[in-house]
Specification:
single chain, 224 residues, alpha/beta, Spore Coat Polysaccharide Biosynthesis Protein SpsA, Chain A, 7-stranded mixed sheet, two-stranded antiparallel ribbon, 7 helices, 11 strands, 24% strand, binds cytidine-5'-triphosphate, binds the ligand C[C@](O)(CO)[C@H](O)COP(=O)(O)O
Length: 224
């Protein structure tokens, strides 16, 4: 089955508080997005689709030239939310019977084994969403009090999130809902079962400045 990867990098990175959107910041001396795209290209034969903010496409082209970086990929402009950006990426998937992995451009430490495992399990189950158990205790917050929850009943959800293309195409016909924080929520809303796949604690999402500092420590360290 043909494989596609949609790398969503259409956000502005407001929580990072950086003038340059976080997907272009340097990690181990090269832009975060180069790490992410290279990880997918190294994993398995697939078609790479990169979703970027409209006002950053020329910056991306300049970065590629400056770094003499030539990994084949298609670029499409993103939308107002992650949901809309994924939807734009989906328009470039032409094969009706394929597997699609959607991944945050700002998760550059994703490994080939995590990517391939998600594709393989999506082939078996129709969906495969990387997730990890919680390490901390959690409490539910009410208006005047708070109380403990059983952390074994929860998982932290990551990307890659891989699906049969037919499922994704159907699910993304939905109108946008505010609880669509990832693709799993969109597919579940459309009635599809979500299979959780083994995630990786190192597969962190660069959201705030300390995440980038942590990624600098972890990058290239396969032994941890
Ligand atoms: N309209 C959007 C919003 C987000 N994303 C992408 O979805 C991934 C996860 O989103 P997040 O970490 O929230 O990125 P931002 O939206 O850029 O960050 P913030 O919420 O802090 O503004 C990122 O790779 C981001 O670029 C996207 O493609 N299109
Ligand atoms: C898709 C995601 O990374 C899964 O954990 C997450 O939902 C993205 O959330 P964000 O608020 O857009 O960073």
């Amino acid at each position: 089955m043909k494989r596609y990867a949609i790398i969503v990098a259409g956000g502005s990175g407001s929580r990072m508080n950086s003038e340059i959107p976080k997907q272009f910041l340097l990690l181990a001396n090269k832009p975060v997005l180069f790490h992410t795209l290279e990880a997918f290209a190294a994993a398995a034969p697939l078609e790479l689709i990169l979703v970027l903010p409209e006002n950053q496409i020329s910056y991306w082209e300049r970065l590629r030239q400056d770094y003499n970086w030539h990994l084949p990929h298609q670029v499409v402009t993103g939308g107002d939310t992650r949901f809309h950006s994924v939807k734009k990426g989906l328009e470039l998937v032409s094969d009706p019977d394929s597997l699609i992995a959607v991944h945050d451009g700002v998760r550059p430490l994703v490994t080939a084994s995590l990517i391939n495992n998600c594709f393989e399990e999506a082939g078996l189950f129709g969906s495969a969403v990387a997730a990890v158990p919680l390490k901390d205790s959690i409490r539910a917050i009410g208006p005047t009090s708070n109380g403990p929850l059983d952390r074994e009943a929860f998982r932290l959800v990551q990307t890659p999130q891989a699906f049969r293309s037919e499922w994704m195409k159907k699910a993304f016909l939905a109108d946008y809902q505010p609880f669509f924080t990832d693709c799993a929520s969109v597919l579940e809303y459309a009635g599809f079962d979500i299979h959780l796949s083994k995630g990786d604690y190192k597969n962190l999402k660069i959201t705030t400045p300390e995440d980038l500092a942590l990624a600098e420590v972890l990058v290239g360290r396969s032994e941890v």
